[in-house]
Structure formats: structure tokens, C-alpha cells
Fold this protein.
Amino acid sequence: MVQPMAAENAIHGKARGTPGRQPLGVGMTGSCAWRVGVAWVCGLALTAMALTAGTATAAGDRLIHVLSNGWHTSIAIARADLSADLIPEVADFPAASHLEFGWGDAAYYPAAQPTLGLALRATVPGPAVVHLAGLPAPAAEVFPAANVFAVPLTDQGLASLIGYLAASFAREGAGKAEPVGPGLYGFSRFYPGTGSFHLFNTCNTWTARALAAAGVPLEVRGVQTAHDLVSRLQPFARGP
């Protein structure tokens, strides 16, 4: 049997008692200063597209970043590598240098004061939201206490990841999803998401699927916690 606090942490990766931080001096909303979860549903991989040279390495790789604070994992991508044609929501953050993507339970994730009741309800399938943050600097600078892993992708891999992220927004036939509320930071918002969040499809499960869609050869099955994800990612990443 999953104990209540263990269930809450496993469900959405939120660490109670985490010291609050003010990234780059910007005020934050929500009760926890770094509660990013990125539990994305399986998206669709797109064919390769023309990408601007935002993160190209000498070997021709594209670098994305996976963040973990021990409970949450999330994905950050340079704005120069993102197409507003595929993810029109990035236009809501015109001053951002990087975009961080998260996904989670529609009730628990945005809650200013998440409760055990919300956590337990999130163990069963329910609607999801996307948390999109327009970072004013690279992720490692905005979240200095997080573990940040640089993950090299091919152009095709990055295109497939962007397709996965694009498919996580529930646009209901509209060209762009409209925010459903303010985000966890002053520079973020929540949007309606696709897919179903539950105990066995957490933010960390979603991140694993995102990386697999991008061509990272990690094993997705069994990923539930941030530790599960990070231990499988480390052989393919540059970072802590």
C-alpha cells in the first residue's frame, strides 16, 4: 500500500518543505518555489524541420536540458530552437531566452495549497494541464539548486521532441491554447493539456516518454519518480 505522503510525492513529484527561492529576483506564485513537474503525455513526432542555430554544438548536436530537484523533472529548450508555428503558446513569452515545459494533474498541479485529498484524487486518471515558463536566462541560472542535465539531440530528434511538446497542448481546434491560469512563477502560465494524469503516468513518466520520442535510448517502462528518470538518463546526458 502506498503511504499518503509517498503517494503525494510519487503522484506529482512535489517535495513538501522545499526551501523557497526567488529565481533571478523574480517573484513567484504558489506555495513551493520550484514545483515544476513535467509529466507529458505521449505526443506525435514530426519530420525534421528547419531549425535556427540556437544550441548547435561543434558536433552538430542540439542541446536541450532536463531539470530535476529530486522530485520533479522538466524540459527546457532555447527559444531560438522553438517554432511558434508548431508551439504558438511560446508567443506569450516574447522576452524569454528559454522555455520550460511541464505537465501534470489539472487540479493538484496549479493548486496554491495542494492537499493530501487532491494528491489522492490524482492517483486515478484525470485531466491534465501544461505549465509553460518563459525563462529569462538559461535554466541552470534560473534554478541554481536544481540538477540540470544537458542532453544532445540530432536535428531530427529535436524536431520529434517539439512535436511531442506541441501535442501536449489541448487546443480544441483553435490555433493556440489559451491560458487557464497564472503559473507557479511570475513568468509562467498554465494551459489545458492532453492526456490523462494518474499514479502510473506521472510527470517523470512523461519526461521519459518525451526523451524517448526525441531518440534518447532510455527505458520508459517503470519510470515513476525523478530518481527513476535521472538514473536512466545519466548515461546519455552531460551534467551532475
In short: Strands lie at 62-68, 73-78, 98-105, 126-135, 147-153, 181-182, 188-197. The longest helix spans residues 155-166.
